[in-house]
Design goal:
This protein is mainly alpha-helical. The chain has helices at residues 2-13, 31-36, 42-67, 69-94, 103-126, 128-133, 135-142, 144-162, 168-197, 200-224, 238-259, 263-266, 297-303, 312-326, 329-341, 357-379, 384-392, 396-412, and strands at 228-230, 233-237, 270-272, 277-279, 291-294, 307-310. Helix content is 69%, strand content 5%.
Length: 422
């Protein structure tokens, strides 16, 4: 105990400049790729590795889209857990905290608690009819927030009980590190799934726009980049940033046009208890129906036509793509600053040529928050099906009171005729 106290006492008192470098990750590039690219320079070798792995990941992404919404939700959950693991592992290595009592267990316990809270809220919102049939689930949903708080409180008490003399500052470092990591990963992945429930198009267009911006900015920077963009990320250039912006806006506009044609992508994802599965069938809203728009005078002369037919969602896609290409990269800059602060090149070595999962999704989390705020601010209106689901879980007396109040309201507005009493 004395040796451990001395070790952590010294560690707690060291300045930030004394933070040791994390050993570089091992190269996980498949041997077949190494042999095939052995004759190339390191610059072109990295270009080919990144390109091949990018195409592989995009192909797998298309396959998961084909498999449906539930698989996409599992994908988001898996990415969230992996990102949490990568960031927490950096904290353990930087602060050499593997031997801290209980802390590795507590980090994963808090992840479980926060996921239980957020995904329990989702179940209560979107699966009310299913919950109504299961008595045990009714209890869990009714007291969901109290159970979530009790679980978190148990973890909080375990943390306090784990505090050991001379370890205090280091333990609070890691406590804060865990909670910030939870804020970055779990809350944002929850928003991604919320966007998915609004319609798969609200999931696919923003995510694909960030991917497009990442790829095209890299290509423009690789071939034409000369002017450094920001010191936090020395390889980023103005040429890549500007080229990525225009490419992303054009891509988002075209992707929105293609996806708006199909109910599978535009209909809200709903759980149907009668078929016990997710369904994407509906009458598309006005956002996904072709509308005629008058062109500005300079475009009329250029295109030689008075109007153009567009899906209204295409106009929204311009806002989404603009954010993905102008503000989204700041998520990457933030991640670059984080890595420079702790003297690491990548979050992990999960994907050869790309680094860790967090290296690929640093911009996605920022995008998820924007899309959720955009939907709630400019798109979402009252959802009749969700209101009906909430009414179905009420007691019969409460449902009757709602019916009487709604009937009185409709009569006062002249929509219903008052019934004559005999």
């Amino acid at each position: 105990d004395t040796d451990i106290d001395d070790r952590y006492g010294d560690l707690d008192s060291r300045p930030d400049s004394d933070i040791p470098e994390i050993p570089p990750s091992s190269d996980r590039t498949p041997e077949i790729l190494k042999k095939a690219l052995s004759g190339l320079s390191s610059r072109w070798k990295n270009w080919w590795i990144r390109g091949i792995l990018t195409l592989t990941m995009i192909s797998l992404f298309f396959l998961i889209i084909y498999m449906g919404s539930f698989m996409l939700m599992l994908l988001v959950l898996g990415i969230q857990v992996k990102c949490f693991h990568e960031i927490i592992t950096i904290g353990y290595r930087v602060y050499r905290s593997y031997d801290l009592p209980w802390f590795r267990t507590l980090s994963w316990y808090f992840l479980l608690c926060v996921n239980y809270f957020f995904y329990g809220e989702t179940v209560a919102d979107y699966f009310a009819t299913f919950v109504q049939r299961e008595e045990q689930l009714q209890f869990l949903i009714r007291y969901h927030r109290f159970i979530s708080f009790a679980l978190y409180l148990a973890g909080f008490c375990m943390f306090v009980l784990s505090l050991v003399k001379k370890h205090y500052r280091l333990q609070f470092y890691m406590f804060a590190w865990t909670h910030v990591t939870l804020l970055i990963t779990v809350t944002q992945s929850h928003l991604v799934i919320q966007n998915l429930f609004e319609g798969m198009i609200w999931f696919l267009v923003p995510i694909s726009s960030v991917i497009c911006n990442d790829i095209t900015a890299y290509l423009f920077g690789f071939f034409f980049g000369r002017t450094p963009l920001i010191k936090l990320s020395p390889k980023k250039t103005w040429e890549g940033f500007i080229g990525g912006f225009f490419s992303t806006v054009i891509f988002g506009f075209i992707a929105a046009y293609v996806l708006s044609k199909y109910q599978y992508f535009v209909c809200p994802v709903e759980y149907r208890s009668d078929v016990n599965s997710f369904v994407t069938e509906c009458e598309p809203s006005e956002l996904f129906q072709l509308q005629s728009y008058s062109l500005p005078p300079f475009l009329k002369a250029l295109l030689r036509r008075e109007t153009v037919s567009l899906y209204p969602f295409q106009i929204h896609s311009i806002a989404l793509s603009t954010f993905a290409s102008l503000i989204g990269p700041f998520g990457g800059f933030f991640a670059s600053g984080f890595k420079r602060a702790f003297k690491i090149k990548d979050f992990a070595n999960t994907i050869p040529g790309h680094g860790g999962i967090m290296d690929r999704f640093d911009c996605q989390y920022l995008m998820a928050t924007f899309v959720h705020v955009y939907i709630t601010s400019f798109i979402r209106g009252p959802n009749p099906s969700k209101v009906l689901q909430q009414l179905l879980v009420l007691q019969p007396e409460q449902q009757l009171n709602v019916y009487k109040a709604l009937k009185t309201h409709l009569i006062e507005k002249g929509i219903l005729q008052p019934t004559l009493k005999v």
